[in-house]
Design brief:
Bound molecules: glutamic acid
Shape: elongated
CATH superfamily of the largest domain: HUPs
Distance between the termini: 79 Å
CATH topology of the largest domain: Rossmann fold
Length: 506
């Protein structure tokens, strides 16, 4: 049988890393087994569900590269894929439960139920419905319903029964029916509660494997009872461990429990996030840590998921991001870094649009830019700048701080320029030499610039005597890319300008 998994988010907030991990595990399980991955939007909470949150789910999945086979905006044979559009399907099954006598209407008011609950708690009992309305006979039920009395439907639960299932991660899990009681399945016939809609959808959508967070374990026996009452097949279950903060407490905003779209803004690559999230609960069985999504698709197995809580370690995420940044294509990396340079006002696209890359159909594909200090700079030069930092970044956003001196006016002073005990005459002499060399380089290539400056540096006892003041004069920084690369990337004109400015400061 073809594996069919579903991911079922509620669009009541931004798409969270916890949801992303559940989605990823579903996706990987389907990919590994040649199955299908279905997106179902659980938007029955009308007040809290918002179209912008649904949009955020689509955008986040798209960014992460977790393409679904069926879902809203990609209809398949088992739609619609939004619960809000499946009212008729639910009503059919809910009525069936009532007509077959497996569910009964409860006319108790919310206040009555609350009072009952409190009394039970006061007596030190676990709260459970008293089954008052179970005793009303069917004819009476029909009369009350006909008279328009409000009701919820409750599933009639057999006493003393064990409900158990084999969880692929946790092994056998059992519950006692007495602890569950006659639980509500819908408001009237039209409005199913979560467990009802979920059980019906999983059946109707031919879901074979339900993979979700551990927080849903207590819902599983209820869903199983509904499936049994309706004669549905039972899917396989796998409940993923909770994601915990480093101190083993529940994840909170402070510990990285934020939206996937925020991780994107912070400068993470999607492949870093999928790599990191895969390791939150799954292990390859050895100590490998670096995985592309394609590798995960081949290697993943639900049987190798752990049941103990998975600790979210943001430093590790950054470390993994650094590994992926080193590994990606330079053209793509440059395109991803450019928005950070723009947002820090270090460069401005000369096509004049705020957005980068320019929207499809914008005037030119190869965009030119102006630097903060008014020079022109093209994409290829930006690519060289990014290349120089590719091995140092653990976040894309770091490009702005690391490379700002390429785009901005810089300031230098004696203290910065000085190497060891050199005095200002010696420093001036070094800078003059560099000015002379740079002015006379015939072919402005990286090799030529490197070779000529290096030749001169080799004349000194300790190359630093020549190279430190030059590098400092070109960058205004204590730490930067090496002097040859900076000189070459800045270009002859700008390099000379900066050297002359440094000389003046001495
Ligand atoms: N809509 C539920 C949630 O967002 C998921 C339910 C499920 O996976 O069964 O937590």
């Amino acid at each position: 049988m073809k594996i069919r998994v579903r991911f079922a988010p509620s669009p009541t907030g931004l798409f969270h890393v916890g949801s992303a991990r559940t989605t990823l595990f579903n996706y990987l399980h389907a990919k590994k087994r040649g199955g299908e991955f279905i997106l179902r939007i659980e938007d029955t909470d009308k007040e809290r569900s918002k179209p912008e949150y649904e949009e955020n789910i689509f955008e986040s999945l798209d960014w992460l590269g977790l393409e679904f086979d069926e879902g809203p905006i990609k209809e398949g044979s088992y739609g619609p894929y939004r619960q809000s559009e499946r009212g008729e399907i639910y009503e059919k099954y809910i009525k069936k439960l009532f007509e077959s006598g497996k569910a009964y209407p409860c006319f108790c008011s919310e206040d009555d139920l609350e009072r009952e609950r409190e009394a039970q708690l006061d007596r030190g009992e676990a709260p459970k419905y008293s089954e008052k309305c179970r005793k009303i006979d069917h004819e009476e039920d029909l009369k009350k319903i006909k008279n328009g009395e409000d009701f919820i439907l409750r599933l009639m639960i057999e006493k003393g029964k064990e409900i158990s299932f084999e969880d692929k991660i946790r092994g056998r899990v059992s519950f006692q029916s007495d602890g569950i009681g006659d639980f509500p399945i819908s408001k009237g016939f039209e409005r199913p509660f979560y467990n009802t809609a979920c059980a019906i959808d999983d059946f109707e959508m031919r879901i074979t494997d339900v993979i979700r967070g551990e927080d849903h374990i207590s819902n599983t026996p209820k869903q199983i009872l509904i499936q049994d009452a309706l004669g549905f097949d039972r899917p396989n279950y796998a409940h993923l461990p909770l994601i915990l903060a480093p101190d083993k407490s529940k994840m909170s905003k402070r510990f990285g429990a934020v939206a996937v779209s925020d991780y994107k803004k912070m400068g993470f690559l999607p492949e870093s996030l999928t790599n990191f999230l895969a390791l939150l609960g799954w292990s390859p069985g050895d100590d490998r840590e670096f995985f592309s999504l394609g590798e995960l698709e081949k290697e993943f197995s639900i049987e190798r998921c752990k049941k103990s809580g998975a600790v979210f370690n943001k430093e590790k995420l950054e470390y993994i991001n650094g590994l992926h940044i080193k590994n990606i294509d330079l053209q793509r990396l440059t395109n991803l870094c450019i928005p950070y340079l723009i947002s820090e006002s270090l460069i401005i696209p000369s096509h004049g649009e705020e957005e980068y890359p320019p929207a499809m159909g914008a005037r030119s594909v190869t965009v030119d830019f102006k630097t903060a200090d008014g020079r022109s700079i093209n994409f290829d030069t930006l690519k060289e700048i990014v290349k120089e930092h590719q091995d140092r970044m653990t976040l894309l956003s770091q490009i702005a701080d690391l490379s700002s001196y390429f785009f901005n006016r810089i300031e230098v002073d004696f203290d910065l320029l000085q190497w060891k005990e050199m005095n200002s005459e010696e420093l001036k002499d070094v800078i003059d030499k560099a000015i002379n060399i740079i002015s006379n380089i015939d072919k402005w290539t990286k090799e030529e610039v490197t070779e000529r400056l290096l030749q001169e540096a080799n004349q000194y006892e300790g190359r630093g005597r020549f190279l430190w003041p030059i590098r400092a004069a070109l960058t205004g920084e204590k730490a930067s890319v090496g002097p040859f690369e900076v000189a070459w990337i800045l270009g002859r004109e700008e390099a000379l300008k900066r050297l002359k400015q440094a000389k003046k400061s001495l």
